[in-house]
């Protein structure tokens, strides 16, 4: 039997795989289809290759930002959904790290063609990746605050 962490990790590998492991075949197929559609329309694989080769200006030019904006929400929703359906995150606020990661990565996408970090333009792959950690941290921080306030009320 696959654990909630295993399903989360498969969703990181490819959105929809965690849903397949959870037996949610239709949901998994929809997520895989949407991931494929957004990936192709945003030219995401070419952007990843250019970014990894250090061709940030080429990556920015290749990116269809109107499509790429959808990717973080789909990606983090698929992770949260697979994790939740497998029994992970038993409290009602466990979605917050996933949601805030999606928010922060989306903002990273928005500014990735212009924002420089220490004088270096990071582009549509590296800046959004750097935005994951602060997003997850803010989500966990808010989850702790809400849980603490909820416990204090009772």
Q: Quick one: overall form?
A: flat
Ends apart, CA distance between termini: 36 Å
The helix/strand order is: HHHHHHHHEEH
Q: Outline the low-pLDDT stretches.
A: none
Total helices: the number is: 9
* Oligomeric status: single chain
Q: How many domain regions?
A: 1
Structural class: mainly alpha
Radius of gyration: 17 Å
The helical percent reads over 70%
Main sheet? 2 strands, antiparallel
- The average pLDDT is 92
Beta strand count: 2
Beta-strand content = under 5%
Q: Which sequence of strands runs across the widest sheet?
A: 1-2
Explained architecture:
- Keywords: Membrane, Transmembrane, Transmembrane helix.
- The chain is mostly helical and 154 residues long.
- The chain has one domain.
- Strands 1-2 form a two-stranded antiparallel ribbon.
- β1 and β2 form a beta hairpin.
- α4 runs antiparallel to α5.
- The radius of gyration is 17 Å and the shape is flat.
- The model has no long low-confidence stretch (mean pLDDT 92).
């Amino acid at each position: 039997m696959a654990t909630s962490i295993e399903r989360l990790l498969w969703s990181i590998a490819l959105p929809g795989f965690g849903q397949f492991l959870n037996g949610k075949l239709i949901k998994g197929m929809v997520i895989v289809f949407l991931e494929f559609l957004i990936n192709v329309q945003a030219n995401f694989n070419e952007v990843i290759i250019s970014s990894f080769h250090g061709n940030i200006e080429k990556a920015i030019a290749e990116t269809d930002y109107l499509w790429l904006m959808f990717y973080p929400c789909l990606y983090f929703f698929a992770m949260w959904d697979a994790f939740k359906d497998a029994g992970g995150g038993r409290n009602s606020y466990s979605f917050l790290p996933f949601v805030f990661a999606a928010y922060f990565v989306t903002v990273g996408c928005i500014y990735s063609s212009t924002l420089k970090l220490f004088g270096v333009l990071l582009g549509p792959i590296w800046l959004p990746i750097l935005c994951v950690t602060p997003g997850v941290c803010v989500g966990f921080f808010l989850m702790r605050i809400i849980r603490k306030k909820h416990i204090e009320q009772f």
